[in-house]
Specification:
CATH architecture of the largest domain: 2-Layer Sandwich
Shape: elongated
CATH topology of the largest domain: Dihydrodipicolinate Reductase, domain 2
Distance between the termini: 49 Å
Largest sheet: 11 strands, mixed
Number of helices: 13
Structural class: alpha/beta
Number of strands: 19
Number of domains: 3
CATH class of the largest domain: Alpha Beta
Low-confidence stretches: none
Helix content: 25-40%
Strand content: 25-35%
Mean pLDDT: 94
Radius of gyration: 24 Å
């Protein structure tokens, strides 16, 4: 058997500890599949004293994380620190500059610096791999980069954040308010103490920007991802959706329309017949549509010790085998700077939830606003009492431009009959 692949591990949180456990438990199997052993030679993290449930005494502990890239006894640096900038990106840049392979689970870093890092890795002739950065244990990066490499992909979408999916599923099953479910998720450890990146859609947007670049052969454009989280989703929206034959999911969608790319993360009404409606709890799911292969559907655990560690080690096995290639399926200089589509240009059906005064003539007023904006009503329900003495109205439109719906909403905001801010959600009709 060939000489070992020697790795340095930066970051010993949940995922880092999982990588150590996985390499220990499946050591012989991994060596047979890799054609050589994979060995950790050095580790680094902020807190030496923390019990991580795994023996770290057999590895050299390095306090200066950046020095891992300088070691002559390291072939690959595994970056599990996190963060779009700071020590993580500094370590990766240094490792690449010294010709060392890099494996990372850092979706924020790839979303912000992926093009730069990919170009540097190609110049240095060293691999940059990031399977664990998107959808945890789901092998979606490999599937698009390799399995669907012969296809033109025009759309990629899915449920990309397990925390949000867990919250929405709990609201659906228990009829509970968002704030109550979020608090319970934090107590159980499903949501961070500061859940902003998850519930505001930022985490999903990072992943979507990476998938879009990989799928479309375009430069990463995280700044153009239109992002809306789930804070405004109310229990009444969940109930309305069920009555109308939908479930609410936070969905990331990237699609090529003409010569533009539309990227958006937002809560959507998903028809019950759509496979995404059946993705519950903390699961993730990703769909890619190729012009020859058709629709590919992937579902699995999107985070956590086991799934993410599995993706990290899978990348290490590829490197051990000598399997490299461009990070984004083609040389970085072939990635095209495709412009972002305008939000108003998007066509589809829409869900609109309003709290309105319980008075004669209000429905007629709403219908006139929608008519004047060019929006046709498909269905309308009135259900339950709203705050401030009003009632809830839920409207589903026929297919129209988003700009038309936005125009109607502006008119509604100016009406004394509409109480509070209207809630708008797209309907996923793919």
């Amino acid at each position: 058997m060939n000489s070992p692949l020697r790795i340095a591990l930066a970051g010993l949180g949940t995922v880092g500890a999982g990588v150590v456990k996985l390499l220990d438990e499946n050591r012989d199997l991994i060596a047979r599949r890799s054609g050589r052993p994979i060995e950790i030679v050095a580790v680094s993290a902020r807190d030496r004293s923390r019990d991580r449930g795994v023996d770290l005494g057999r590895f050299e502990w390095v306090d200066d994380t950046s020095s891992l890239a300088e070691r002559d006894d390291v072939d690959v640096v595994v970056e599990l620190i996190g963060g779009s900038d700071g020590p993580a990106v500094a370590l990766v840049r240094e490792a690449i500059s010294r010709g060392k392979g890099v494996v990372t689970a850092n979706k924020a870093m790839i979303a912000h610096h992926g093009l730069e890092l990919a170009a540097a890795a190609e110049k240095a002739g060293t691999p940059l791999k990031y399977e664990a950065a998107v959808a945890g244990g789901i092998p979606i990066i490999k599937a698009i980069r390799e399995g669907a490499a012969a296809n033109r992909i025009d759309r990629v979408y899915g449920i990309l954040n397990g925390t949000c999916n867990y919250i929405l599923t709990e609201m659906e099953e228990k009829g509970a308010a968002f704030a109550d479910v979020l608090g319970e998720a934090q107590r159980l450890g499903y949501a961070e103490a500061d859940p902003t990146f998850d519930i505001d859609g930022i985490d999903a947007a990072h992943k979507l920007a990476i998938l879009a670049s990989l799928a479309f052969g375009s430069e990463i454009d995280f700044a153009s991802v239109r992002t809306t989280g789930i804070r405004a989703v109310a229990a009444t929206d969940i109930a309305h959706a069920a009555e109308l034959g939908f479930r609410v999911r936070l969905v990331g969608v990237a699609e090529v329309v003409g010569d533009r790319i539309h990227q958006r993360v937002h809560p959507c009404l998903v028809p019950l017949a759509n496979p995404l409606a059946k993705v519950t709890g903390s699961l993730n799911a990703v769909v890619a549509e190729g012009n020859f292969v058709g629709r590919l559907f992937f579902e699995g655990r999107g985070a956590g010790e086991g799934p993410t560690a599995s993706a990290v080690v899978a990348d290490l096995i590829d490197i051990a085998r000598g399997e490299a290639g461009p990070a984004f399926a083609m040389p970085s200089h072939h990635l095209e700077p495709i412009g972002a589509g305008e939000a108003g240009d998007w066509r589809g059906r829409y869900y609109l939830r309003l709290s309105v005064a319980d008075e004669t003539g209000v429905l007629a007023e709403l219908a006139a606003m929608l008519r004047d904006a060019g929006v046709s009503i498909d269905s309308l329900i009135q259900r339950g009492q709203a705050d401030a003495g009003g009632v809830f109205i839920a409207i589903v439109s026929h297919e129209t431009d988003e700009s038309a719906v936005r125009k109607a909403i502006e008119a509604m905001r100016a009406s004394s009959s509409v109480l509070g801010e209207p809630m708008l959600m797209h309907i996923l009709d793919f």
